[in-house]
Heterokaryon incompatibility domain-containing protein (Diacronema lutheri), 544 residues
Amino acid sequence: VTVVDDARPVELADALPLSSERARKFAELHESIMLMPASLPRTAAGAIVAARAGAPASPPARARRPQRESDPEIALSSSHSAVRESLCAQVERTHANAMASDCPPCALLRTVNPNRVSANYTDPDQLAAVSDFWAQSSGQLEHFLLSRAVTASIGGASDMLVFVSHAWPSPDGFAGAAGLPLTYAQAKASELGNAVSDLRRTRADGAGGCQNVRLWIDKACVAQEPAAMRNVYLSYIQEFILLSDEMIALLPWTYFERIWCMFEWACFLAAKQPRYLHVACEFMLTHDSAPMYVRAIRDLSVEHAHCTVAADRLILVAMINSSFRSVAAFELFAKVTAVALLARTTAKQAGRSGVDEFAQTWVELAVELKQPRLAAALRAAECARWRAQSLVHASSWLPESTFRKTPTTAAAAAVPNALCLPGGGSTDSVGEGGCPGPSDARPRVVELWQRRSWRDAYLICVDRWFTGEIEPLLLEIKKRCVLPAERRPLAALELPDGAHSPTPAHFAEHSAQTLSPSPRRKSYASRFRRATPLTLALAGVDVS
């Protein structure tokens, strides 16, 4: 019989189908348990109950036999040890093969399927399954099993490699400041799921296409044990960032208090366009937490940033000095880009409310950072007007039942002209058949004819505002803070827009200062030609 808390036996007797005699015995047993000292062991408790009932005490329990190797708990422990030994052997083989290859970073590159680490917050089963991965603030060797080595066979024209940057420990006071009753682990899994879903929809290669998104996450793609192997993986962090197409930053308000997060943020933006960095903080950036974000950006400092391993700070500072004009330039670049990208995120959130006050916080911070042009560009956002126009135009879009891989003549006639779309007005964005054409290398509007949601139309307006008004200012600041390509190490080579991964040819052209855009890569195989000092020396390129 199990008695829960201090439930009264009379209530239990009334609720259970017990006879009066069994109810009386149950009440006596309950009273005996409630009066029993908590320190008494189970054997003593049984003796007391038996004595009160007038029955002889049960004989003392026999000593437990020694455990055997066939016992389930011993077998489970042995199995766990065997898995760890096998995993350690796999890590050592991977490391040895990578060091013997022409391109160690490419050989060490691993990816994770988003379904194994992300979930929709409306799916409690999947959310519970993936939250365990994010709940632990320290690395586990077993997480390495979630990732797979990148090979040419899994690459393709629709593949996208996304670098995921995140802060491991949960911020203090997260439960009260978060927008939903989610734990930090659940919020990270949900944020990542939303960001991946948006990428799949907005970064399609062709009509009706779908991106096969693969994630690089340090918790799963870096062998956490032994420490020497972990350090080898982390030494190639810049290479992993350069090999990525885009980046998702899971951004709590403590993100910019950690030097590793700051470095990943600035390193990606030093080599890629700002539009390819996606801030995921929908459940974290709320009215209550916004002041904490502002304070974290205002106080951003390499000197005072938290670093779990003291030796990592010296390595990261050296990497910063190799790519930026100074540590102060690095801090300014990180602050300004943080303001701009968080403003884009809050602009997307503002579509739900239909007001324009979202920008005031970031306008004030931009003025404080002595960036008046950025503040003016933030004031230019018209979220309320974009939302109203999106609601009007969404009803004229094609329903889901008419989706095609390529638009038919009838479908093309039903597509609204780009000039009348919210945020439109440029003939450069109109393609064949009246379909909106790409305005940049990877536009959100390339598949506009397929969309029917006002939310999608609103996001198009936000992206056009960001790429037209904000991004040019960030590129100017980037030129002032980031070292020119010819003065930076090859690991931090800045590629032209449209070139997603450096190759030996890129480095040879870089040495001659004749960089030219390369076509969009067709598979990960091209990334295996990634230049290293060894391959460059073999190719006759001066790496000094």
